[in-house]
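Open question from group meeting: does this chain pack into something compact, or does most of it stay loose? Before anyone orders reagents, we agreed to write out a predicted structure and look at it together. Recording both the input and the output here so the notebook holds the full record.
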Amino acid sequence: MANTQQMANAIRALAMDAVQQANSGHPGAPMGMADMAVALWSRHLQHNPVNPHWANRDRFILSNGHGSMLIYGLLHLSGYDLSIDELKNFRKLHSKTAGHPEVGVTPGVETTTGPLGQGITNAVGFALAEKLLAAEFNQPKHEIVDHHTFVFMGDGCLMEGISHEAAALAGAWKLNKLIALWDDNGISIDGKVTPWFGDNTPARFEAYGWNVIRDVDGHNVDAVDAAIAAAKKSADKPTLICCKTHIGKGSPNRQDTAKAHGEPLGAEEIALTRAALGWTAAPFEIPAEVYADWSAKDQGAKIEAAWDKKFAAYTAAFPEQAANFTRRMAGNLPEDFGGIAAKIASDAHDAGATVASRKASQLALEGLTAALPELLGGSADLTGSNLTNTKSTPAFRVDDKGAVVKTEEGQIGRHINYGVREFGMAAIMNGVALHGGYIPYGGTFLTFADYSRNAIRMAALMKQRVIHVFTHDSIGLGEDGPTHQSIEHAASLRLIPGLDVWRPADTTETAVAWTVALSQKNKPTAMLLSRQNLAYSPKSEDALDNIACGAYVLSEPKDIGFKKKAQAVIIATGSEVQLALAAQKLLAERKIAVRVVSMPSTTTFDKQDVKYKKAVLPAGLPRIAVEMGVTDFWWKYGCAAVVGIDTYGESAPAPVLFEHFGFTPKNVADTVQVALQNAAK
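Structure tokens returned:
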């Protein structure tokens, strides 16, 4: 029989030693959660250390990511590709043991956690993906999708509003495969939490529709084991297991204090703790018998082999579904996606419709969602405004027993009503993407991207294909006023490393934006879309081919019958492209020739080679940018002038606002003319 006490102490020792060696980190949380980890990882977790990407593995998320040495210790001890040398390099440059766990860096880490609340919210996305995949692919006697999502979280996660947005959804969606273990130690960085955290957490989660197991001794492995076993029997509710623990368990002088939280224990206290725990091994040394108790390689191989046999039977019975499951879990698009994308863009060009780009987005999605069953849409209670729903994406619903409701044709719902929960929606989408099998997209107004911001940043950091549909992208929103009108949002989103931002000007640009976003497996995208109708801009074949470059020459003087070389370049995005084209004609009447460049994606254009950039924005020609947003961003392109807005908007009909703030063809033309006059001085 495994010595569970020594197994837990191994985690404690590794945490103490790694934090001490790094002279940085959080030893207290791993020491407090060690027994909980023994119960879950050695008795319940379905995983294979040799294959961290096995499709039907349980997902484990350490939401309180500052306790990273817990998961690093677990991965090392159970047999993942994480050597003791990597633990010695905890928090060092280019190690596999970063300060907080990072997906893609450490084998076995499912998501990057650090911002509290993101982990538990990601976990809701993991559990949602599992539930939907099971409903979509499982057949009688062929249940190839059947796994749990486990989360460890602390008081900090429960103080974050995002956690509660997601927990409420988990209850409404009856995600019974989601099991969260609350590390209830009553301590945070600032000390005992009672003066500022007086929630009745069990009652709160019960109100969300969770199954709650109260008052579990988090240091009694058998008690935690029994609670997990009970949680796994829940048929229609996620489960919260309330584990009473002691932060810094075993430390004679720092247990149950904030001094155990975010700093090394120190050599003297570590020696005292080792003595108190009866741990005699040297730093970073683990007795062979403890390694043997922890190793999950043999059991993992057996579990995966059993599933492989099950999947082989499924493949024989349902070959097409099996192939689609494998493709989608690998994150690959259908082989004919290139043809699908080209047709959608071509159809948009041929139709030349004058519609809002939010409508153009829906038109593109009609074709894409029909062709790609992995597309999973949604909206933060703004479906009718974001237009994220299509004929192929009925609303996601569950019945009273927790089963996913299917259409008469046997299709699951693929459009999610998140309610007014932009924080939660954005982070849940990250969890869905991380799980695999679906490509999530979700909508809200661009101004409310502020709510989504941390999850957008995390998607970029984690290199996840998540698509944010942000509509009502400017003062064109009109009467709703400055609370709803985006000013700085486009510019600030463009500053997030690894995020592509598209602000298309018409139906074809919107279709191309969607196909580019979907084709980028390792990158999130933000779509910034208009409320107001946008006239279609005629395009040459070269222009059509170049949209995907992020910027292209839309109109030369000759295209409007003006036989003169361009004297200036107008750069415009989104709804302002039509202003630029109108200004081009006004300027032609004044005998001034200009090129119009549409730049739907600055982030994409910036990655093009120098030759292409120079061809689009030639040297020696004054550049004038036009966008209904802050002007600061555009100076990076060497602009002579920018027609923008550096104040908040106003509440008034959109045409009145355009006139008031200078977004008229005449003002753009005048600005170009002044810039040329200044250049001639």
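Observations to bring back to the group:
The CA atoms of residues 221 and 227 lie 10 Å apart.
The first strand starts at residue 59 and ends at 62.
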